[in-house]
Design brief:
Length: 252
Protein backbone atom coordinates (compact mmCIF):
# COMPACT_ATOMS: atom_id res chain seq x y z
CA UNK A 1 0.00 0.00 0.00
CA UNK A 2 1.42 3.40 -0.86
CA UNK A 3 1.86 6.20 1.62
CA UNK A 4 -1.14 8.26 0.46
CA UNK A 5 -3.48 5.26 0.71
CA UNK A 6 -2.16 4.44 4.18
CA UNK A 7 -2.75 8.05 5.29
CA UNK A 8 -6.30 8.00 3.89
CA UNK A 9 -6.97 4.78 5.81
CA UNK A 10 -5.53 6.22 9.01
CA UNK A 11 -7.66 9.35 8.67
CA UNK A 12 -10.80 7.29 8.21
CA UNK A 13 -9.92 5.26 11.31
CA UNK A 14 -9.28 8.40 13.40
CA UNK A 15 -12.57 9.93 12.23
CA UNK A 16 -14.33 6.73 13.20
CA UNK A 17 -12.82 6.79 16.68
CA UNK A 18 -13.80 10.47 17.08
CA UNK A 19 -17.38 9.64 16.06
CA UNK A 20 -17.56 6.70 18.46
CA UNK A 21 -16.18 8.77 21.36
CA UNK A 22 -18.61 11.59 20.51
CA UNK A 23 -21.52 9.13 20.51
CA UNK A 24 -20.51 7.84 23.95
CA UNK A 25 -20.75 11.41 25.25
CA UNK A 26 -23.94 12.24 23.35
CA UNK A 27 -22.11 14.77 21.20
CA UNK A 28 -22.45 15.56 17.51
CA UNK A 29 -19.21 14.45 15.79
CA UNK A 30 -19.59 17.39 13.39
CA UNK A 31 -18.75 19.66 16.34
CA UNK A 32 -15.23 18.20 16.48
CA UNK A 33 -12.55 19.36 14.06
CA UNK A 34 -9.68 17.06 13.26
CA UNK A 35 -6.43 19.03 13.05
CA UNK A 36 -3.84 16.85 11.32
CA UNK A 37 -0.42 17.61 12.80
CA UNK A 38 2.16 17.64 9.98
CA UNK A 39 5.28 18.81 11.83
CA UNK A 40 8.44 17.12 10.46
CA UNK A 41 6.46 15.73 7.48
CA UNK A 42 6.90 16.89 3.86
CA UNK A 43 4.28 18.86 1.87
CA UNK A 44 3.35 15.76 -0.18
CA UNK A 45 1.90 14.18 2.94
CA UNK A 46 -0.14 17.30 3.63
CA UNK A 47 -1.57 17.00 0.12
CA UNK A 48 -2.33 13.32 0.73
CA UNK A 49 -4.33 14.30 3.81
CA UNK A 50 -6.12 17.06 1.89
CA UNK A 51 -7.07 14.49 -0.75
CA UNK A 52 -8.50 12.38 2.07
CA UNK A 53 -10.74 15.29 3.12
CA UNK A 54 -8.76 16.99 5.92
CA UNK A 55 -9.19 20.78 6.03
CA UNK A 56 -7.13 21.69 9.09
CA UNK A 57 -3.40 21.30 9.67
CA UNK A 58 -1.23 21.92 12.69
CA UNK A 59 2.42 22.94 12.72
CA UNK A 60 4.47 23.68 15.80
CA UNK A 61 7.27 25.79 14.34
CA UNK A 62 6.90 29.03 12.41
CA UNK A 63 10.02 28.53 10.27
CA UNK A 64 9.03 25.02 9.24
CA UNK A 65 5.49 26.14 8.40
CA UNK A 66 6.76 29.12 6.39
CA UNK A 67 8.85 26.77 4.26
CA UNK A 68 6.23 24.07 3.88
CA UNK A 69 2.97 25.94 3.29
CA UNK A 70 3.97 27.44 -0.11
CA UNK A 71 4.81 23.90 -1.32
CA UNK A 72 1.40 22.45 -0.45
CA UNK A 73 -0.67 22.31 -3.65
CA UNK A 74 -3.99 22.57 -1.84
CA UNK A 75 -2.80 25.26 0.62
CA UNK A 76 -5.48 27.86 -0.20
CA UNK A 77 -8.40 25.65 0.72
CA UNK A 78 -7.23 24.61 4.17
CA UNK A 79 -6.69 26.26 7.54
CA UNK A 80 -3.32 26.40 9.28
CA UNK A 81 -3.07 26.07 13.03
CA UNK A 82 -0.05 27.05 15.09
CA UNK A 83 0.10 24.58 17.97
CA UNK A 84 3.66 25.07 19.26
CA UNK A 85 5.21 27.71 21.49
CA UNK A 86 5.59 31.04 19.71
CA UNK A 87 8.55 33.28 20.45
CA UNK A 88 7.79 36.98 20.33
CA UNK A 89 10.44 37.59 17.66
CA UNK A 90 8.48 35.26 15.35
CA UNK A 91 5.09 36.79 16.13
CA UNK A 92 5.03 38.99 13.04
CA UNK A 93 5.63 36.07 10.71
CA UNK A 94 3.14 33.86 12.55
CA UNK A 95 0.45 36.54 12.35
CA UNK A 96 0.68 36.38 8.56
CA UNK A 97 0.77 32.59 8.23
CA UNK A 98 -1.80 31.09 10.55
CA UNK A 99 -5.60 31.02 10.72
CA UNK A 100 -5.70 30.07 14.40
CA UNK A 101 -2.97 30.32 17.02
CA UNK A 102 -3.61 27.67 19.71
CA UNK A 103 -0.53 28.54 21.72
CA UNK A 104 -1.08 32.06 23.00
CA UNK A 105 0.61 31.66 26.37
CA UNK A 106 1.39 35.11 27.74
CA UNK A 107 0.08 38.66 27.84
CA UNK A 108 3.33 39.93 26.30
CA UNK A 109 2.97 37.61 23.34
CA UNK A 110 -0.65 38.73 22.91
CA UNK A 111 0.46 42.35 22.87
CA UNK A 112 3.16 41.59 20.29
CA UNK A 113 0.69 39.77 18.01
CA UNK A 114 -1.80 42.59 18.37
CA UNK A 115 0.84 45.15 17.44
CA UNK A 116 1.85 43.21 14.31
CA UNK A 117 -1.74 42.72 13.21
CA UNK A 118 -2.18 46.50 13.40
CA UNK A 119 1.07 47.11 11.51
CA UNK A 120 0.11 44.61 8.83
CA UNK A 121 -3.19 46.37 8.17
CA UNK A 122 -3.23 48.87 5.33
CA UNK A 123 -3.72 52.07 7.28
CA UNK A 124 -4.06 53.14 10.90
CA UNK A 125 -7.74 53.96 10.28
CA UNK A 126 -8.58 50.54 8.93
CA UNK A 127 -9.57 48.02 11.55
CA UNK A 128 -7.08 45.18 11.11
CA UNK A 129 -8.07 41.62 10.40
CA UNK A 130 -8.52 39.98 13.79
CA UNK A 131 -6.33 36.99 14.45
CA UNK A 132 -8.19 34.11 16.08
CA UNK A 133 -6.36 32.73 19.13
CA UNK A 134 -6.77 30.21 21.91
CA UNK A 135 -5.28 30.74 25.35
CA UNK A 136 -2.94 27.88 26.17
CA UNK A 137 -3.23 26.96 29.81
CA UNK A 138 -1.11 24.75 31.97
CA UNK A 139 -3.73 22.78 33.85
CA UNK A 140 -1.44 20.08 35.16
CA UNK A 141 1.11 22.42 36.75
CA UNK A 142 4.66 21.16 37.12
CA UNK A 143 4.40 18.53 34.39
CA UNK A 144 4.70 20.90 31.46
CA UNK A 145 5.76 24.50 31.54
CA UNK A 146 4.17 26.28 28.61
CA UNK A 147 0.87 28.06 28.93
CA UNK A 148 -0.73 30.36 31.45
CA UNK A 149 -0.26 28.96 34.90
CA UNK A 150 -3.65 27.97 36.24
CA UNK A 151 -2.49 24.87 38.11
CA UNK A 152 -4.88 24.32 40.96
CA UNK A 153 -6.69 27.45 39.82
CA UNK A 154 -10.11 25.99 40.32
CA UNK A 155 -9.24 25.83 44.05
CA UNK A 156 -6.66 28.61 44.28
CA UNK A 157 -8.33 32.01 43.87
CA UNK A 158 -5.06 33.98 43.63
CA UNK A 159 -3.80 32.00 40.65
CA UNK A 160 -7.17 32.27 38.95
CA UNK A 161 -7.47 36.01 39.65
CA UNK A 162 -4.04 36.67 38.16
CA UNK A 163 -4.96 34.71 35.06
CA UNK A 164 -8.26 36.58 34.76
CA UNK A 165 -6.45 39.92 34.89
CA UNK A 166 -4.37 38.83 31.90
CA UNK A 167 -7.48 37.54 30.13
CA UNK A 168 -9.22 40.90 30.58
CA UNK A 169 -6.26 42.71 29.02
CA UNK A 170 -6.03 40.25 26.12
CA UNK A 171 -9.75 40.59 25.41
CA UNK A 172 -9.25 44.35 25.19
CA UNK A 173 -6.72 44.00 22.36
CA UNK A 174 -8.46 45.05 19.15
CA UNK A 175 -6.67 42.79 16.69
CA UNK A 176 -7.02 39.47 18.49
CA UNK A 177 -10.13 37.36 18.70
CA UNK A 178 -10.13 34.89 21.59
CA UNK A 179 -12.09 31.75 20.75
CA UNK A 180 -11.34 29.42 23.65
CA UNK A 181 -8.67 27.39 25.42
CA UNK A 182 -5.98 24.87 24.59
CA UNK A 183 -3.99 22.49 26.75
CA UNK A 184 -1.41 19.75 26.36
CA UNK A 185 -2.00 16.91 28.79
CA UNK A 186 0.97 15.18 30.43
CA UNK A 187 2.18 12.09 28.66
CA UNK A 188 0.74 9.00 30.34
CA UNK A 189 0.42 5.34 29.40
CA UNK A 190 -3.31 5.23 30.14
CA UNK A 191 -5.32 8.15 28.71
CA UNK A 192 -7.89 7.78 31.49
CA UNK A 193 -5.31 9.33 33.81
CA UNK A 194 -5.56 12.67 31.99
CA UNK A 195 -9.35 12.83 31.93
CA UNK A 196 -9.29 15.25 34.93
CA UNK A 197 -6.99 17.58 32.96
CA UNK A 198 -9.47 17.76 30.08
CA UNK A 199 -12.40 18.13 32.45
CA UNK A 200 -10.68 20.99 34.27
CA UNK A 201 -10.00 22.75 30.96
CA UNK A 202 -13.71 22.56 30.16
CA UNK A 203 -14.67 23.80 33.63
CA UNK A 204 -12.19 26.67 33.36
CA UNK A 205 -13.71 27.55 29.99
CA UNK A 206 -17.21 27.56 31.52
CA UNK A 207 -15.96 29.79 34.34
CA UNK A 208 -14.37 32.25 31.88
CA UNK A 209 -17.52 32.27 29.77
CA UNK A 210 -19.52 33.45 32.76
CA UNK A 211 -16.91 36.01 33.84
CA UNK A 212 -16.36 37.36 30.32
CA UNK A 213 -19.67 36.81 28.53
CA UNK A 214 -18.83 39.29 25.78
CA UNK A 215 -16.13 37.02 24.34
CA UNK A 216 -16.45 33.72 22.53
CA UNK A 217 -15.25 30.67 24.44
CA UNK A 218 -16.55 27.94 22.19
CA UNK A 219 -13.30 26.17 21.31
CA UNK A 220 -11.47 23.58 23.41
CA UNK A 221 -8.28 22.35 21.75
CA UNK A 222 -7.31 19.17 23.59
CA UNK A 223 -6.37 15.62 22.75
CA UNK A 224 -3.52 14.08 20.73
CA UNK A 225 -2.84 10.59 19.36
CA UNK A 226 -2.62 9.03 22.81
CA UNK A 227 -5.66 10.64 24.38
CA UNK A 228 -8.01 12.22 21.82
CA UNK A 229 -10.96 9.93 22.53
CA UNK A 230 -11.00 10.89 26.21
CA UNK A 231 -10.66 14.55 25.17
CA UNK A 232 -13.67 14.21 22.85
CA UNK A 233 -15.69 12.67 25.67
CA UNK A 234 -14.75 15.68 27.82
CA UNK A 235 -15.77 18.28 25.25
CA UNK A 236 -12.88 18.85 22.81
CA UNK A 237 -13.84 20.81 19.70
CA UNK A 238 -10.36 20.59 18.13
CA UNK A 239 -8.21 17.47 18.39
CA UNK A 240 -4.57 17.65 17.28
CA UNK A 241 -3.54 14.30 15.84
CA UNK A 242 -0.16 13.52 14.28
CA UNK A 243 1.15 9.98 14.77
CA UNK A 244 -2.17 8.18 14.36
CA UNK A 245 -2.35 9.66 10.84
CA UNK A 246 1.23 9.94 9.61
CA UNK A 247 3.05 7.39 11.77
CA UNK A 248 5.94 7.95 14.14
CA UNK A 249 8.06 11.07 13.63
CA UNK A 250 11.80 10.65 13.18
CA UNK A 251 12.40 13.81 15.14
CA UNK A 252 10.27 16.52 16.63
C1 LIG B 1 3.10 17.13 18.06
C2 LIG B 1 1.91 17.71 18.71
C3 LIG B 1 0.66 17.10 18.60
C4 LIG B 1 0.44 15.79 17.90
O1 LIG B 1 0.95 14.74 18.67
P1 LIG B 1 0.73 13.20 18.25
O2 LIG B 1 1.08 12.46 19.48
O3 LIG B 1 1.63 12.95 17.11
O4 LIG B 1 -0.70 13.07 17.88
C5 LIG B 1 -0.43 17.72 19.19
N1 LIG B 1 -0.30 18.88 19.87
C6 LIG B 1 0.89 19.51 19.98
C7 LIG B 1 0.95 20.79 20.73
C8 LIG B 1 2.02 18.94 19.41
O5 LIG B 1 3.21 19.57 19.55
Amino acid sequence: MDRAAAIAGNIAAVRDRIATAAARAGRDPAAITLVAVTKTHPPELVDAAIAAGVHDFGENRVAEAAEKIPLVAGRDNVRWHLIGHLQRNKARKAAGLFDLVHSLDSLRLAEALDRYMHENSTSPDVVPRRLPVLLQVNIAGEVQKEGFDVAGGTQNRDVLDRFCQDVARILALGALEVRGLMTIAPYVADAEEVRPVFRQLRELRDDLASRFPGASWSELSMGMTGDFEVAVEEGATLVRVGRAIFGERRNS
